Amino acid sequence: MVKVLLERSIKGKHVSEIVRLLRKMRVLAMQQTGYISGETLHKVDDPNHYLVISTWESLEHWQDWYQSPERQKIQGEIDSLLESPTAPRVFTY
Fold it and tell me: Helix, strand, or coil here: 76?
């Protein structure tokens, strides 16, 4: 099992657009083989800083999702609204 952490700092006033895109991505992720769960958090003292945590059955399942064209398309839209591109960090038990 792996956990993936994705931190995102949103530029300007794009929070509602990012939230819409994150929901869209979550719906697609939930349909992927190996997806277990996910949650989206934002910093208490910085509403433009988000953390997404997802849990996958295996690293291979995460990598399949990470490399999928549908995910990459949405990720490109998200990254265009961020201070810097999303850099996933993958952890295991």
Answer: helix
